[in-house]
Amino acid sequence: MPVPRLRNYIGGEWVEAQTDEYDDVINPARGELLAQVPLSTSADIDRAVSSAREAFPEWRNTPPAARARYLFRLKELMEERFDELAEAQTREHGKTIDESRGETRRGIEQVEVATGIPTLMQGYNLEDIAAGIDEHCFFQPIGVFSHIAPFNFPFMVPLWFVPYAIATGNTFVVKPSPRVPLSQTRIIELFEEVDLPPGVLNMVHGANEATNALLHHPDVAGVTFVGSTAVGRDIIYKTCGQTGKRVIAQCGAKNFIVVMEDCDLEKSMAGLMTSFFGNTGQRCLAGANLVLVGGDAFYKRAVDAFIEAAAAIRVGDGMDESVQMGPLQNGASKQRVLGYIEKGIREGAALALDGRKLRLTDPDLPEDCFLNPSVFVDVTPQMTIAREEIFGPVASILRAKDLDQAIGMIHDSPYGNAAALYTSSGQAAQKFRHDVKCGNIGVNIGIPAPMAFFPFSGMKDSFFGALHGQGRDVIRFFTEAKVVVERWF
Ligand code: NAD
Questions:
Q1: pLDDT of 13
Q2: Residues 408-430 pLDDT 10s
Q3: Strand, coil or helix: what is 201?
Q4: In this model, does residue 7 exceed pLDDT 80?
Q5: 283 C-alpha vs ligand 1 centroid, how far in Å?
Q6: Which CATH superfamily includes the segment(s) 255-443?
């Protein structure tokens, strides 16, 4: 079978990228070549932005309820193709099929919420602000928006933005991660099936050049980015400031999970495993630092239970229903995680569970991308493994004498994406949610992922911008407020 060469989608047509440079898209569990993805150029971006700009006037004048109807049809198609969409994610990303089903559901929820646009986009007004004078506030679409996607949720993350942008009457260019371009390609094919007018949604595959072209294009009004802090802060946010674009930059994380002695450890363990090792640790909401607060006996009991549960996680090809953790998304990711494990050992932490010793469900799988869960104990907050985002299946266990010290550790971290507290104390939970400077707080929930109708609220180095993705924030992001003051003689 010849390997497919992916094409861009511009103005309702599938077109070859204007480049000779292609990257391989590889199934990390099996090592098989799935496709080749073009590293498109600024000429490709220019073509896509022109097409989006041309489509904008007619699309913005299409009534919101009519725009929403495309999304109702899209939602139906996504439900029909649910299994196929989930399988595509597992093949290109490596996550387990169950995790892909979860991702598919979360993506569809975004489409569902965006169908409410005739209500969500409503403005407000007041009669008689002075005698015989009324004032109205409308929210209007702006023009061409774009999305630059990360590799870790190839289906869901672009859907944090695309449905809302087009529902509000904007047109769009999406650039998938070149590591996982196939799920986004399927989304575009579904939009094509619902006959979305040409030019409203365009897709350009690529990497740095395509990103930079979007950041500098004068006809792009705004950029939505999800990815690492280094790129989000130093390239995306900075350049959008220089080029005068709206920006949402949702970035990296180092999340603390605080477990108090008064929690129900047994009931908490499944959630802790999902938090630290779900999606092979490649999640911006993943637990990374486990902070235990309690006496010596509790500390020992918690460490033993955590390590026992982590060691029992079945690692293999995510297409196998019995597998609980898939591979890292590519060999470079595995090497990066190995580098952190070595650094942790060098800096004096004790590797109590060594995930480098592979225990795969199928010994014939290629080892290039696999690691089993690793657990470090005797970690201090200053160590590199406690400070930097590892983005892999590695847990660092720290100890705090009380909740205040644990909260202090969270505040010393440059990141502020998520934090969770496991406790049976309402008072501790209330203090935690009030004091902790993180955008997403879990109480006895290890992955506090906001639903589509709430904002995705990172703080500190985890977010750059003002309005967040999802919820009411994203509707405001994609619209401009216009006020009309009106009198009739
Ligand atoms: P990344 O920053 O490497 O890449 C993200 C996007 O930026 C990709 O489309 C890539 O092509 C582009 N890009 C990368 N380097 C670039 C450069 N030098 N110039 C121009 N464009 C460039 O991120 P990733 O590895 O794909 O994703 C993982 C990161 O995303 C993690 O840090 C994770 O925490 C973060 N993330 C954050 C959230 C959130 O909501 N805060 C959600 C998911 C992932």
A1: 98
A2: 999 999 999 999 999 999 999 99
A3: strand
A4: yes
A5: 12
A6: Aldehyde Dehydrogenase; Chain A, domain 2 (3.40.309.10)
